[in-house]
Amino acid sequence: MVWTVGDWCICVPESIELLSQSVQKFCGCGPHSYTAKHFLHAPGHRQSPINIRPDEVKLDPRLNIKRLTWKYPKETIELLNTGYCWKAHVPTEGATLSGGPLSHDYRLAQYHCHWGENDHIGSEHVVNGQSYGAEIHFVNWNTKYGSFNEALKYGDGLAVLGVFLKVGKENPELNKLCELTNDIKHKDECTPFRHTLDPNKLLPQKGAYYTYLGSLTTPPCNECVIWIVFVEPIEVSHEQLESFREMMSMKKGGCSQPSREHKILNNFRPPLSVEERVVSLGYL
User: Of 137, 119, 126, 279, nearest to 208 (Cα)?
Assistant: First the structure.
């Protein structure tokens, strides 16, 4: 797939597994350059993320015909530094998501996080122009397409749960992940979990969610995502977010004098135009 930004002609991968390589090649210096000027011009009319305006959200009673539910495994296998974020791998068998805005069953593939250089920026979606310190994405693919990569080709191929992180009290469950970030400080480093982390405990059990049709927020920005963004954030401590910011976008030994510019500090895409899309509100 090829798209153009200014004088650049960029070849981007069809698989999300190659996104880190694409971002680093394009930016020249890794995810710390992952800013507005780079990815504002992906083609299409349902790009993500967006600025969610609660006063413009539509309550959709159809979302309550079959409540949104998930059955995720109660463990996470390993944590990987992709070069632009941390990514957590889970047992995928039986890891299902269904209901709400979804017409088919989806399977959890992985979850990852976006954050900023301070506690006031980092989430990809914003609400009334206000950011949160980070946003976790639980990426699920539509099982009717047979595989993750095949699902990327269709408008309902993925369903992503978005969870905002705001600074407050320490999150005990997330601590099981934060304690590993020093073990994956460099790109491509991977480590198993020492203590069982239940991804279900990072998700709300009640409350409301926003949903709309959107895209991947990293190249190739496929417009294949049904977004489900929870209204209420979870609390994490400043120290927990700081552990993310110590991760590096370079491989170990890739630079004789690693500096701040090699840290993964702002790996979020800025909000894009909602255009004619409707953002709906549903309840768990």
Answer: 279
Residue 79 host element (H or E): strand 78-81
Share of the chain above pLDDT 70, in %: 82
Two tokens, residue 44: 């299409």
Element (H, E) at 19: helix 19-27
**pTM, 2 dp:** 0.86
Q: What is the DSSP letter of 55?
A: G
Q: Which residues pair with 9 in a beta bridge?
A: 4
Q: What kind of fold does domain 2-283 have according to CATH?
A: Carbonic Anhydrase II (3.10.200)
Gyration radius of the chain's alpha carbons: 18
What pLDDT shows up at residue 252? 86
C-alpha angle with apex 231: 35 to 110, nearest 5 degrees?
Answer: 60
Domain limits, the chain: 2-283
Distance CA 254, CA 109 (A): 30
Amino acid at 100: G
Which of 217, 195, 209 lies closest to 97, judged by CA? 209
Q: Is the peptide bond before 49 cis (omega within 30 degrees of 0)?
A: yes
Q: Tally the C-alpha atoms within 13 A of residue 118's C-alpha that lie toward its C-beta.
A: 1
Which residues is 98 bridged to in the sheet? 69
Measured distance CA(102)–CA(34) in Å, rounded: 30
